[in-house]
Amino acid sequence: MECFIVEESDIDQVAGTLTLRGDEARHAVRVLRISEGEHLVATTLRGTCYKAICQKSGQPSKNEWVCECTIDEMLPEHNESRTDVRLIQGITQQQSKLEEIVEKATEMGIASISPIFTKRTEKRTITRERLERIIRSGCKQSHRARMPVLSDAMSLEESLDRSRSEGRSIVILHESAPWSDALAKFLPKDRAAKVTLIVGPEGGFDEGEVLLARKFGAIVASLGPRRLRAETAAIMAVSVTMGLSQLLNAN
Ligand code: SAM
User: Fold this and answer.
1) How remote is the CA of residue 230 from the centroid of ligand 1, in Å?
2) CATH architecture, domain defined by 3-76
3) pLDDT above 70: percentage of residues in the chain
4) What separation in angstroms does the CA of 90 have from each of 2, 157, 228?
5) How far does residue 94's CA lie from ligand 1's centre (Å)?
6) Residue 249 clears pLDDT 90, i.e. is over it
7) How far is Cα 110 from Cα 80, in angstroms, rounded to an integer?
8) CA of 222 relative to ligand 1 center, distance in Å
9) What pTM, to 2 d.p., does this model score?
10) 229 CB near ligand 1 (under 6 Å)
C-alpha cells in the first residue's frame, strides 16, 4: 500500500473524506495510477496517518491533479516510536553522507536530527530544503505519522545544552571508547526514554570535544573495536537504539 502526504486542510473528519492534491496527487494518479477502489495510506506528517480508499482520481485541469478518498481508519502516531531518539550528527564533508544518514535515521524512526559543526567539520551549514525533502520521502517510505524535526546547524556545545535542558540521556559515540563500553549497555531501559546520540564527522571528535560532552553529562560509548565511517556509525547507533526500544515495547 502506497503512502502519500495530505494537508490537514484537505481532511474532512465529519464527512470522513480526504483529498490528495499537488505533487502528491500527481504522483498517486499519474505515476502510480491509483484508481477508484484502491487502498492507500495518507500521512499528515504531524502525528496522524489515515487508511483511505480512493473514490475519484483525475486531472481537472492541465496542471491540477486530485485524488478524492474516503477515510477507512484514523491512525494516530502510526509507526512512531515511544522512545524519543535524537541524533546529533557532525556535518560530513560529503553532503551525500549526511543525506544517507538522514534518510536511514528517518526510516528507522528518529524523532529529531541536529547537524553540528565541530573542530573537524569542513562545513558549518546544511542544505535544509534538500534534507527536508529526503526526510519527507523517508516518512512516506516508512508510513510514518510524524516528520522528524531537523534543526539548523549549531555548535556541539549548543546541542549538548539543549539535550541536557530537556533531561535527555546523552551518549557520545567515540572510536577510542573501550569496546566493552557498548552503546546498548548505556541505553535507558525505559520505554518512553529520551535519548540523544552524538556521532562525529569524518575526522571524528577531538579529546576536548569528548571532555565537553562529558561535562554535559554524556556517556562515552563504543560501537565495537572496528573504526567505522561516520555514516556507518550513525546508522548503527540509531539502529541499536531503535532495536532496543522495539524489544522494550514488544514485551
Ligand atoms: N577519528 C577517527 C579518524 O581519525 O579516522 C574516525 C572518526 S569516524 C570516521 C567518525 C565518527 O564515527 C566518530 O566521531 C565516532 O562518533 C563514530 N565512530 C566510528 N567508529 C566508532 C566505534 N568503533 N565506536 C564508536 N564510535 C565510532
Assistant:
1) 6
2) Beta Barrel (2.40)
3) 100
4) 33, 12, 14
5) 16
6) no
7) 9
8) 9
9) 0.95
10) yes
Ligand 1 pocket, 178 CB below 6 A? no
Strands 169-173, 154-155: pairing is unpaired
pLDDT tens digits along 126-142:
999 999 999 999 999 99
Plot region of 18 (φ>0 → left; ψ -120 to 50 → alpha; else → beta): beta
DSSP codes joined into one string, 63-107: TEEEEEEEEEEEEETTT--SSEEEEEEEPPSSHHHHHHHHHHHHH
In short, whether 105's Cβ falls inside 6 Å of ligand 1 is no
Q: Where in the chain is the domain with CATH 3.40.1280.10?
A: 84-250
CA-nearest residue, atom 19 of ligand 1: 228
20-50 residue pLDDT tens:
999 999 999 999 999 999 999 999 999 999 9
Tell me the per-residue pLDDT of 190-222, one tens digit each, with 9 for 90 and over.
989 999 999 999 999 999 999 999 999 999 999
The third-level CATH classification (topology) of the domain covering 84-250 is Alpha/beta knot (3.40.1280)
